[in-house]
């Protein structure tokens, strides 16, 4: 393959980062899912998501939660996510040539690639009771996203540098109280997604003579779009002490549209980039790509075992198989770029308990596990160092009055090790093993008028 041909392929792959907006590594849930919409649910490891219905924030998990809350209520939550992913024993090579690190020529220890970010995830929900049988609610929350950010000289820089995704759902909801025990609900999901992604370009591979890994350029891609989906839910009070919940969130189809920009830092790299641009490569251009955020199904049981003790269980299925390939279309004559992903559907299971210590204090805890949709090491990337995980959570709710509750929650996530074994003619090879650690802290308040 000629250097010019390889350079054109890099242009395609660099711009194809637009479709990787959904591939930013998330912490609490696998894939690129975020479930931190309620501190109460987080403290119980999401075991109360479908059937808990303790306050209006639960409508993000099951819209029929509105039927378990009388009158008017408002709730707000803020989660702080602290995560880090480290690649150990890393190896990389552009065109099968061992990769150096910094451009000053000093030796580079490629055994590690460190990433991870901190993030604040807010959410808000409000509901009112329109009649004895009808409730209306509105929730605003983030169901997907997070970010990874690597140093510009790490060995996997041609695969990924920055990945930043923000997704917001605006969910207006109506709930119908069919009987005193059964509520049915539906709502819209008006979704906005915004992405910024970047990676390095091996301009040294285009120089004459070729110097792979010695001179870098950089590509940054931005894109955003709006989409619409729906959510459905049911909440059934089986007995005075036991209720079950089920909810479904549809997929949302997005077409991210944005720009790709290319740059270089040192004089030699800028000269190589200018020469490539004169030949029609690495020119700033537009692009668009289809991205589907997946459908999910929640099933849950909530049982008031005693006057003080509540037990709960939740199972969530996510249709990650909709993320089977990335297809990028360009504003110029560049051919479409198609990348196979082959993600698999997953299950997340959790169980938890709450204990009313006093009339004002409730203690909470839970455990859970979540499968990764990434099928194997050949599909695990630095943008998505995703693995199976387990978590442990704890928290407490303080109710100073009958109308006001304040909750604090903590969750620790245990990640499995994840091997990476990427082979790419354009970006080179990358292998290693990811290790990760993460903590999530959340606080919320709800007030009933």
Question: Key features?
Answer:
449 residues, mainly beta, Porin, elongated, OMPP1/FadL/TodX, membrane, Putative outer membrane protein, cell outer membrane, transmembrane beta strand
Describe this structure in words.
51% of the residues are buried. Strand 16 and strand 17 form a beta hairpin. It is elongated and about 80 Å long. It has 3 helices and 21 strands. It starts with a helix and ends with a strand. It is mainly beta and 449 residues long. It has a single domain, classed as Porin. The N terminus is likely disordered. 7% of the residues lie in helices and 53% in strands.
**Any idea what the radius of gyration is?**
24 Å
Total strands: 21
User: What helical percentage do the residues reach?
Assistant: under 10%
Q: From the coordinates shown, what is the CATH architecture? A: Beta Barrel
Strand order of the largest sheet: 1-3-4-6-7-8-9-12-13-16-17-18-19-21
How many separate helices?
A: 3
**CATH homologous superfamily grouping:** Outer membrane protein transport protein (OMPP1/FadL/TodX)
InterPro entries: OMPP1/FadL/TodX
Pfam families: Toluene_X
Membrane topology: Multi-pass membrane protein
Protein name: Putative outer membrane protein
Compose a concise summary of this entry.
This protein has three helices and 21 strands. The chain has 449 residues and is mainly beta.
Question: Topology, please?
Answer:
Elements: H1 3-15, H2 39-43, E1 73-93, E2 112-115, E3 118-129, E4 134-141, E5 145-149, E6 162-177, E7 182-202, E8 216-237, E9 242-249, E10 252-264, H3 267-278, E11 285-293, E12 296-304, E13 309-318, E14 325-330, E15 337-340, E16 346-356, E17 361-370, E18 389-398, E19 404-415, E20 418-422, E21 429-448
């Amino acid at each position: 393959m000629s250097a010019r041909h390889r350079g054109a392929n890099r242009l395609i792959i660099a711009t194809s980062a637009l479709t990787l907006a959904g591939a930013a590594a998330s912490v609490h849930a696998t894939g690129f899912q975020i479930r931190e919409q309620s501190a109460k649910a987080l403290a119980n490891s999401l075991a109360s998501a479908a059937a808990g219905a303790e306050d209006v924030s639960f409508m993000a998990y099951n819209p029929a939660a509105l039927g378990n809350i009388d009158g008017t209520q408002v709730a707000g939550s803020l989660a702080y996510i602290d995560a880090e992913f480290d690649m150990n024993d890393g190896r990389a090579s552009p065109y099968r040539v061992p990769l150096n690190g910094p451009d000053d020529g000093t030796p580079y220890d490629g055994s590690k690639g460190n990433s991870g970010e901190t993030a604040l995830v807010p959410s808000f929900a409000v509901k009112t009771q329109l009649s004895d049988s009808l409730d209306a609610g509105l929730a605003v929350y983030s169901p997907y996203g997070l970010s990874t950010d690597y140093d510009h000289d790490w060995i996997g820089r041609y695969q990924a540098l920055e990945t930043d995704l923000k997704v917001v759902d605006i969910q207006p909801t109506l709930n119908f109280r069919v009987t005193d025990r059964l509520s049915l609900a539906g709502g819209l999901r008006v979704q906005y997604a915004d992405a910024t992604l970047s990676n390095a370009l091996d301009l040294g591979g285009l120089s004459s003579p070729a110097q792979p890994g010695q001179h870098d350029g950089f590509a940054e891609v931005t894109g955003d779009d709006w989409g619409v989906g729906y959510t459905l839910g049911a909440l059934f009070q089986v007995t005075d002490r036991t209720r079950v919940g089920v909810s479904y969130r549809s997929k949302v189809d997005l077409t991210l549209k944005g720009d790709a920009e290319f740059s270089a830092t040192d004089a030699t790299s800028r000269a190589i980039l200018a020469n490539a641009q004169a030949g029609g490569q690495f020119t700033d251009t537009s692009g668009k790509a289809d991205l589907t955020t997946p459908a999910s199904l929640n099933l849950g049981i909530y049982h008031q075992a005693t006057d003080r003790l509540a037990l709960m269980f939740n199972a969530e299925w996510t249709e990650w198989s909709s993320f089977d390939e990335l297809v990028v279309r360009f504003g110029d004559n560049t051919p479409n770029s198609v990348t196979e992903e082959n993600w698999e559907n997953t299950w997340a299971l959790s169980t938890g308990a709450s204990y009313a210590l006093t009339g004002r204090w409730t203690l909470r805890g839970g455990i859970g596990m979540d499968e990764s949709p990434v099928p194997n090491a050949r599909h695990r990337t630095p943008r998505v160092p995703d693995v199976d995980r387990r978590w442990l959570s704890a928290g407490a709710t303080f109710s100073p009055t009958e109308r006001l509750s304040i909750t604090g929650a903590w969750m620790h996530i245990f990640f499995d090790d994840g091997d990476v074994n990427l082979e790419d003619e354009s970006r080179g090879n990358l292998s290693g093993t990811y290790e990760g650690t993460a903590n999530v802290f959340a606080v919320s308040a709800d007030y009933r008028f």
